[in-house]
Design a protein that fits this description.
The chain is built from six helices and 14 strands. It has 215 residues and is an alpha/beta fold. It has one domain: Spore Coat Polysaccharide Biosynthesis Protein SpsA, Chain A. Strands 3-2-1-4-11-6-12 form a seven-stranded mixed β-sheet, sandwiched between helices. Strands 5-13-7 form a three-stranded mixed β-sheet. It has a two-stranded antiparallel ribbon with strand order 8-9. The longest helix is centred in the C-terminal third of the chain and has 12 residues. It is globular and about 45 Å long.
């Protein structure tokens, strides 16, 4: 596993203004053995044209355009599952289309997985971008209650060995899909939290989402 291939799954819907930032952050990674699978859930903005440009810029970028399945109000779960089925990497991770990676994001996590072969799945390690008010989010159990961001599971930080997500049943539809998937994985696999603050979580996006940790 000296140079494992990392499959990055990016589900998107009508974010042509934000997508270039996310893709550029992948192109700038210090770890070069990756594939980026962008699954467009039938966007109606300028996303299709952008996808053609991305695929021409770098052969490691793969693009898929599918019929509407729910990257909007129903959440990105079904779209991520499509990307997962297309992935060929030894390691699997995700990137939300309104977020970005610091340049050493993949390198640090790949090295951790190489150094800890007993670990199946890691999560954590992000830097939230936004104002103080944006560091609190509605509780999925009771939306009238605002909870600190630190109590949430940030799905973009998921980094796992091939086959783990599939065996855990993949992502569900609807809000909180990351927390539900995490709960199933934690029950059956070796999970560790890392603290590298390299996932750039943009809370300053209007529809930025997070899922609360399920005990």
């Amino acid at each position: 596993m000296a140079q494992p291939l990392v499959s990055i799954i990016l589900a998107t819907y009508n974010r042509s203004d934000l997508l270039p930032r996310a893709v550029e952050s992948v192109l700038l990674q210090s770890w070069h053995n990756w594939e980026l699978i962008i699954v467009d859930d039938c966007s109606t903005d300028g996303t299709p044209a952008l996808l053609e440009e991305f695929a021409q810029i770098d052969f490691r970028v793969r693009t898929i355009r599918q019929q509407r399945s729910g990257a909007g109000p129903e959440g990105p779960g079904p779209t991520r599952n499509r990307g997962l089925r297309e992935a060929s990497g030894d390691l699997i991770t995700v990137l939300d289309s309104d977020d970005a990676y610091a340049v050493d994001h993949l390198t640090l996590r790949v090295r951790y997985m190489i150094d800890h072969p007993e670990v199946d799945f890691i999560y954590g390690g992000y830097r939230a971008i936004g104002n103080d008010a944006q560091m609190r989010v509605p509780d999925i159990e009771d939306p009238s209650i605002m909870i600190p961001l630190d109590e949430c599971i940030i799905g973009g930080t998921f980094f796992t060995r091939r086959g783990v997500i599939e065996r855990a049943g993949g992502w569900d539809s609807g809000y909180g899909e990351d927390a539900r998937l995490f709960s199933r994985i934690r029950a059956s696999f070796v999970v560790r939290k890392v603290d590298y603050p390299t996932y750039l979580y943009h809370r300053d996006t209007i529809d930025s989402r997070c899922s609360r940790l399920i005990p």
